[in-house]
Amino acid sequence: MIDVRIIDLSLRHPGGAEALANVSLDIPAGQFCAVLGASGAGKSTLLRVLAEITAPSTGSMLYCGAPSDTALRRRIGLIPQDFALCGRASVARNVMAVADIALWRSFIGLYPQSERARAARLLAALGLEETHLARRADSLSGGQQQRVAIARALLHRPAIILADEPVSSLDPATGEATLALLRNEARDLGATLICSLHQPDLARRFADRIILLDAGRIVFDGTPAKFDGDITRPRLLAVGQ
Ligand SMILES: Nc1ncnc2c1ncn2[C@@H]1O[C@H](COP(=O)(O)OP(=O)(O)OP(=O)(O)O)[C@@H](O)[C@H]1O
């Protein structure tokens, strides 16, 4: 079980606006923390900083009180907004690409039976039958590819799951079932789940805690019961005005 401490993170892109501004959070181990906010609010930036894909301008993160290291990084399950699949490779190869499997095995596609079975079980739970394992990833629909990215993140039993809009390409019913599965898997693993969403109703139903970002700042941090569900500010003008 890993708790996450985020200390005064700020990030200003070169020539751009401040994507994160003085973000501090203590996320207890095992918590499902939903990150909401209008488009451009900084949700992906926060997740990318936590995944150490993007370096912050200032601030730091601690995992169980310590900076991240190689061992910690291997315990993060990342679901990127763009899925980051290898289109030419099979679904099986994509799902098992980041699992803790000897490199020579993954080169020749010889995965341990236990990992194959877990991959098939996860994909089936996500609504993708075993026949999908042999298909090229780029032959799947966008929503199917998104679920492959979710299975890949869960396969190696992560202690921290960073999910960037993991149901954005799914129809409402599949999205709800997928988010329920993600929450349940995280619970079973004791994993801390930090998940950006565009659907306040899903966040209210599934998350333990909601963080609302606006222009890179935290403007709400509390329980779903206290959240009023409004993630947008009236700053868009209607066409013709
Ligand atoms: N590489 C970059 N260079 C310059 N600005 C960037 C870069 N990446 C993001 N930004 C800016 O940082 C801000 C936050 O972007 P971010 O992608 O984190 O928003 P978001 O809340 O995830 O949005 P969405 O819901 O549309 O995915 C935006 O103003 C965006 O234009």
TrEMBL record:
Domain ABC transporter: 4-240
GO CC terms in record: plasma membrane
Keyword annotations of the record: ATP-binding, Nucleotide-binding
Family annotation (InterPro entries): AAA+_ATPase (IPR003593), ABC_transporter-like_ATP-bd (IPR003439), ABC_transporter-like_CS (IPR017871), ABC_transpr_LolD-like (IPR015854), P-loop_NTPase (IPR027417)
Name under which the protein is recorded: Phosphonate ABC transporter
GO MF terms held by the record: ATP binding; ATP hydrolysis activity; transmembrane transporter activity
SUPFAM superfamilies: P-loop containing nucleoside triphosphate hydrolases
Organism domain of life: Bacteria
